[in-house]
Structure formats: structure tokens, C-alpha cells
Write a structure and sequence with these properties.
Blueprint (H helix, E strand, L loop, with lengths): L2 E5 L2 E10 L2 E7 L4 E7 H11 L7 H13 L5 E6 L3 E11 L5 E12 L2 H44 L33 H11 L33 E2 L2 E2 L4
Antiparallel strand pairs: 1-2, 2-3, 3-4, 4-7, 5-6, 6-7, 8-9
Length: 245
């Protein structure tokens, strides 16, 4: 998962992926991306180099390093950019044994990737995210509409509820539509050909969305049934039969 941090009003995002003990660190300013792979030995070596007065076990060194990068928004970050790489220095205060606080520092250099790597690391995941959120929104809208019909059915059979503070207006999905041209809504998911080519190039994501089916009875309004002496069934009390008049 990407983490956001800000350096001198510039916005950056950082992500760490563990692939069988090889940690890939990616940093982007939403225009370019820098990456590098680190082994556990690389992480420990750099940790000891930056924090010579702190003695920790191997697992603890890795854990504290990952914690530093997962809490970048609370750390002091300095960045030095050159043409082909970016140098990061991160200083953070962590809580150790017996709630004691101590400062940690970590330095690393990442190398600039070409524009195709930026599309793979940043652009493609954003498009996947938009598509996933649009599917989720549709599912939630369908679920709310189904709940509205359930409430209508309840009102026809039982009447209005007594708690007026719980009464809601019927849901209108049109309130979610935004006419702004600056938003990428209803774009990617409209073309099956686009997704075929996109998934073939960048891969798919395993993100399932619950399917909400609108049952046939949910599409037809029903009239409320009322019962009176003429429409009610016969009553039998103590062997006496009451006939309809």
C-alpha cells in the first residue's frame, strides 16, 4: 500500500513490497518513479551504519526499518535529487522497551526508472483502483435500491414506523453523478476492448465485488392489502360458525 509524505510542499508516495525476502522500495512524485531492491542483509547493513550506537537483533532491525517507512508522515524526511537517482534520509522517533523513546535514522538511494515503469508502478494501479471503486459504488447503489423496496414492502404490510428520526428519503443514484470534466468517471469501465488490452499489458487484480441481484418481485410495485369483515376468513369459536353477510 502506498504511503504519502511531503517534503517542502512536494507530495511523494512510497511503497514497499516483500518478495521472498527481497524488499522492493518505490518512491514517486506522481510524475516520475524511483525504485531499488534490498535484501535483508542490505537493510541490516544500512541500519547499523546509520545507527551505530543501537544494538538490535536481525529481525528487530528489519522491523524498525519497515516501521520508519510505514510512518513517513510522522518522520523528518530530506531528499536530494539528481538526474538519475534520489537520496532519502529519514529520521524518526520510535518507542522501544519500557516505553522508552529513541531516534532512528535511515538512508537509501533509489534509481530513476523510465516512463514505462511509471505507468506500470503508478498509472496502471490508479486505473485499477478507479474501476474497482466504480464497481463497488454500483454494488452499493443496487443494494440501497433493494433495501428501499424492502422498506416499501414493510410499509404496505405493517405501516409506517413510529421513529420519525429513522425515516429516510428514497435513494436517488443521480445525486452521485458529477458533471466535472476533471474527473475520470465512467471512462475505463465502459470499453471491454480497453480492458482486454489493459489487462493483457498490465495484468489484472484479484479484487472481488459482491454481486447484488435485483429479484423480479423487486421491480414490480404491489398494492397494500387491507382486510375487513367481507374479505376476512371465517372464524370458528367454540363450535359456532360466523357466516359472511
Amino acid at each position: 500500500m502506498w504511503k504519502i509524505f511531503i517534503v517542502e510542499s512536494d507530495v511523494y508516495i512510497l511503497k514497499i513490497i516483500n518478495n521472498d525476502g527481497i524488499y522492493k522500495i518505490s518512491v514517486s512524485d506522481l510524475k516520475e518513479v524511483w525504485t531499488k531492491d534490498f535484501s535483508i542483509d542490505d537493510i541490516i547493513t544500512e541500519f547499523k551504519k546509520c545507527n551505530p550506537n543501537i544494538v538490535v537483533e536481525t529481525e528487530e532491525a528489519v522491523s524498525q526499518t519497515l516501521k520508519i517507512f510505514n510512518e513517513m508522515d510522522n518522520a523528518l524526511v530530506q531528499i536530494n535529487r539528481t538526474e538519475d537517482k534520489i537520496d532519502l534520509e529519514v529520521k524518526s522517533e520510535v518507542i522501544g522497551i519500557s516505553d522508552s523513546k529513541f531516534k532512528l535514522k535511515y538512508q537509501l538511494s533509489l534509481f530513476k526508472e523510465d516512463i514505462s515503469k511509471f505507468a506500470e508502478e503508478v498509472t496502471a494501479p490508479m486505473i485499477h483502483t478507479i474501476n474497482y471503486l466504480e464497481k463497488q459504488q454500483k454494488m452499493l447503489c443496487d443494494l440501497i435500491k433493494k433495501k428501499d423496496r424492502e422498506l416499501e414492502e414493510y410499509k404496505m404490510e405493517k405501516g409506517l414506523i413510529s421513529r420519525t428520526d429513522l425515516i429516510t428519503e428514497k435513494f436517488d443514484s443521480n445525486i452521485l453523478k458529477n458533471p466535472s470534466d476533471k474527473l475520470m468517471l465512467d471512462t475505463c469501465g465502459e470499453s471491454s476492448k480497453f480492458w482486454e488490452g489493459f489487462i493483457d499489458k498490465y495484468g489484472d487484480v484479484e479484487a472481488k465485488v459482491m454481486e447484488v441481484k435485483v429479484d423480479p418481485w423487486n421491480q414490480v410495485k404491489r398494492k397494500r392489502k387491507t382486510y375487513n369483515a367481507k374479505t376476512s376468513a371465517k372464524k370458528f369459536v367454540a363450535g359456532i360458525t360466523y357466516k359472511k353477510e
